[in-house]
């Protein structure tokens, strides 16, 4: 039977669609613009805010992979809740009513990020949600995940996959691309404060593998799974490696923590003005800074044990594949221009 994939026009959703099609799985790709859906999939034009279109999208499918979400570091909380929470709940209800047997949610470790949180090294799925969240994206991914896991029943199996910083060929807007754009413009200082910062990343093929496994694995109902590359990376030295591969200069200017804190406070004040927030992306945010100044590594043993998950692409190989893809679309200038 068919698998519905939401967010099919995006990097993650599109990769999942192509991965399932390559395995011979019939896929219905949900998108608001049919022209943006990957080739080879049946297309369902639907919106998470519209129950009627969702009902048509889930009709006859055996499973749903929910990759659509509102992303962002700033924005109105109501908009994040409308898409990431209410939209997820609406999709689940329609899928269960239509007789779908499985619902795989693409969550995020950002659901565990607090405003004053520190390093999270080697944490597993027993780590609790924080009492307060770093931003609306983090909060709504946490609330939506809890709704998904609580909806598990013997007839409707639900689970959540938590990839962090998905990257690789096809990525046009993700964290690696954002960093490349800042490196190219010479606008990325070294924010490490002299500390070594470790991070788990998730190469896109690894997430696709995890989705394929989660659609078939037994005893996954009501459970969350960290999904990451086999080894974490040291963020700032790795940034230097990425810069060198693309012929860019590594970050060299350092910013004292008090200066950084003051800049973030000023930016947040300005971006509370609706006219500003609606027109421009902020140059920096507490969320973006947290991603490169807080260590965040994840224990993937539950996914290995219960899903059979096996990440196989080393970072160096993934970077080479990503560089080849960027070259094929016209180089870094074209990638950044699109961004």
Automatic annotation (TrEMBL):
- Pfam families, per database record: Epimerase
**Coiled coil region boundaries:** none
Query: NAD-dependent epimerase/dehydratase domain location, by residue?
Result: 3-226
> Mind telling me what this protein is named?
3-beta hydroxysteroid dehydrogenase
Species for this entry: Nocardia rhizosphaerihabitans
